[in-house]
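User: Show me a protein chain along with its predicted structure.
Assistant: Here is one chain, sequence first, then structure tokens.
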Amino acid sequence: MAHITHRCHKREFLLKFARDQPRWLHWLFEAKKRLGTSILNHALTSNHIHLVLMDDKGEEVISEAMQLIAGRTGQESNQRKNRKGAFWDDHYHATAVEGETHLSPCMVYIGVNMVRAGVGAHPSEWPFCGYNEIQSTRQRYSLIDSERLMDLFGIRNMEELKERHRGWVEEALEKQSYWERQPRWAESIAIGSEGFVRDTKERLGARAKWREIVRANGSYELRDPPTAYGAEFGLENAGLRQENAFYWDMSY
């Protein structure tokens, strides 16, 4: 599965307008419907997005989904505003995430994203994230693949998924660490066990030649050398690195 971050061109707040956020969610639904992409979580801010996708058909389907979502959202927004130029940065960043052990903290990090940004006191106050859908189990036009989440976490039913998910978020809100930036979710190339990270590096070959395997936060990460992360961003950009990058076969 992949945690994806994608920011607006030059970190501009191009998604702050009322029409843009619902349209991004519309095209996310279209990606699910047309390509069968499994959406595990999402969060949409005024200048970047977080998205957790999983697809049994391979990485190329995730690439197609991102091309559809980003391309159509940017095109529509530019047409409405009579705007020219790029809407998104050229590339999004994809972090490979291993299994349920590492998926749950990733989902929590995404869930409290807007709380960290000071938009609200709880994820339920922000309509453009996956928290409310998981808790309410929308029947029509659902985005979140609840069945896949239950399978990944070994959960028997939706009530148990809601309870577990709600508990993770409440626990995180009580911890100071979740109010701070956690760059690994948007900067690492892979997060998981040592074997998973080493396998990912080997599979990437020359593209991962200078990337380091480090142990941090109870897991292993494949990341760029520390010098690549010198820029400082404000809260709205806290989940993003200076240069968005992709290392898998995910491009458009």
